[in-house]
Design brief:
- Strands 5, 8, 9, 11, 16, 17, 18 and 22 form an 8-stranded antiparallel β-sheet that branches.
- Helix content is 4%, strand content 44%.
- The two termini are 45 Å apart.
- The protein is mainly β and 523 residues long.
Length: 523
């Protein structure tokens, strides 16, 4: 930024979408240079005003420019080579030879474009290397991979690059006194965070920004740990997958699965990190509850139907209005609309419920479940459950209305044990009293972030999120309108339920706002 006036001492500036501020010149009339990292591609602008010693401001100048998409990775090994391969093909860069402790053709993380992965056995032969460097570690770069550790009790390396007697950087899992953590180390700095779990996929990315001199670590698309100042040395040796060089040779060998190793020679911005770590949810069930045949309401894709128990019926607006058409008989009673579409499930609060033949979601992994519900009472006498899925001794999750606190609640026990400690998130809401359009409820367990969330009408409230580090698998059937109570059932719902949907994975905020609108979300 510069001005023809020698009286200018500072400049006020603003980039479209930020940042902005005021920067001083070293001396009156001197030009000023500032660093700027665009966080997305597309048209941008910079607005600048010059300010003189008297505090007077010039008119505003606008500079329009366009930001291209970020460069593709300089090295990438998808590691989807056929079983029995002796090396990993490179989409970009140099093919990586594989040690005899590497097995191709393993499972891939669900919800990604990957079709397979490689397993490294943790031995001296469990590694892959292109026998050449992948990036200049003194400049900005990022390295990432999908990983699934077979153990977490020792330090293990996902990726590194050789330097003299030490790795120039290392990305992997580190055993610490407080427990295992993901780690990115470079130039004497280390960033650690997250909680690796044996047998669980995670996306990890280490980033060094040469402009700021900071190292950062991302796990499952989110920054973790505290960015650290680093001064990397030259690391002109070979890039390594599954091991790190030490003074006495290679060590910290990876035991587990690895997929899609990528190296970028630039800063990868947060939106790109999220995209790299994205796992597309899979729709497992959508019950629109428009009708029922022989006591069963169908799943839209032909899956397991919801079987209606005693006290459960399908209400259809068209049938109710046809019984006494208001246009023919002005004395016809008011016929309420269905919650969504032409029909919904009505439960009597005594024994009414519906269930499928087995679990709707794997509760040990990320899931999203939603429904539309309207309570029949304005002052319910007891807690009432909308959705639940049981383990052997307790519900893995249940969504209920608690009249004593006038809240919708998501309840998730920490273990499959009677009386186990429970995590509860809630949202204050008055009971419907049989009126209105009801509420759209959605519950999310995010295994990657170790959190649970409760959405009411597409929104999160102040107490709607909690930490939940260890989800557990439940084999019980999805229940609509009741919850497990000792050796039986309880908390029967009195009201209406519609648009029950179940997904494996985490729906986006936008997708959650669309739940209950009458059409299934197609991730």
């Amino acid at each position: 930024m510069d001005s023809p006036s020698d009286d200018v001492v500072s400049y006020a500036y603003y980039f479209l979408g930020g940042p902005g501020g005021t920067v001083s010149a070293e001396r009156p009339g001197a030009a000023v240079t500032i660093p700027y990292l665009p966080l997305g591609s597309g048209p941008k602008y910079l607005q600048v005003r010059a300010i003189d010693r008297a505090g007077r401001s010039s008119g505003q100048t606008t500079y329009n420019f366009n930001v291209k998409s970020g460069r593709a990775p300089v090295a990438r090994w998808k590691l989807t080579d056929p079983a029995g391969s002796g090396s990993a093909a490179a989409e970009t860069g140099t093919a990586a030879r594989a040690g005899t402790g590497v097995t191709f053709g393993g499972p891939a993380p669900s919800g990604t474009a990957l079709t397979s992965s490689v397993a490294l056995d943790g031995s001296g032969d469990g590694f892959l290397t292109p026998d050449a460097p992948a990036t200049d570690t003194r400049k900005s770069f990022a390295v990432s991979a999908w990983v699934r550790p077979a153990e977490t009790g020792r330090t293990m390396t996902v990726a590194s690059q050789d330097a003299d007697g030490a790795p120039g950087f290392s990305l992997g899992l580190r055993a610490e006194d407080s427990g295992p953590a993901w780690s990115f180390a470079i130039g004497g700095a280390r960033v650690s965070g997250g909680a690796p779990e044996t047998g669980e996929w995670a996306h990890v990315l280490g980033l060094y920004d040469a402009e700021t001199g900071k190292a950062r670590l991302y796990v499952n698309g989110r920054e973790t740990g505290t960015a650290a100042a680093a001064t990397p040395a030259e690391a002109a040796g070979a890039f390594q997958i599954g091991r790190a060089r030490g003074a006495s040779g290679y060590g910290d060998r990876w035991h587990g699965d690895i997929g899609d190793v990528q190296v970028h020679d630039r800063v990868v911005v947060p939106s790109e990190v999220s995209e790299l770590a994205h796992r597309t949810p899979k729709r497992l069930g959508h019950w629109s509850l428009e009708n029922a045949t022989d006591g069963a309401s169908p799943e839209q894709a032909g899956g397991s139907p919801l079987r209606l128990g005693t006290g459960a019926t399908i209400y259809r607006y068209s049938d109710a209005s046809a019984a006494c058409p208001p246009e023919l008989d002005p004395d016809c009673p008011y016929v309420p609309e269905a919650l969504v579409g032409d029909g919904h499930l009505h439960l009597d609060g005594e024994s009414g419920h519906a269930a499928i033949d087995g679990p709707a979601v794997d509760t040990g992994d990320s899931f999203t479940v939603g429904a539309v519900v309207r309570l029949a009472d304005s002052e319910p006498a007891h807690p009432m459950t909308v959705l639940s899925q049981a383990g052997e001794h307790t519900d893995a999750f249940k969504v209920r209305y608690e009249p004593s606190s006038r809240t919708w609640q998501l309840v998730m026990p920490e273990k499959d044990e009677a009386g186990a400690p429970e995590k509860v998130v809630s949202e204050v809401e008055s009971a419907d009293g049989g009126e209105g359009l009801g509420h759209r409820l959605a519950v999310v367990y995010d295994d990657g972030a170790d959190t649970i969330r409760l959405y009411v009408d597409g929104q999160l409230g102040g107490g709607d999120t909690a930490d939940f580090p260890n989800g557990w698998h439940s084999g019980g059937a999805l229940q609509v309108g009741r919850a497990k109570a000792g050796d039986g059932w309880g908390e029967y719902l009195h009201g209406d339920v519609d648009e029950v949907q179940a997904y494996q994975g985490v729906l986006s905020e936008t997708q959650i706002r669309m739940l209950g609108a009458g059409a299934g979300i197609d991730p």
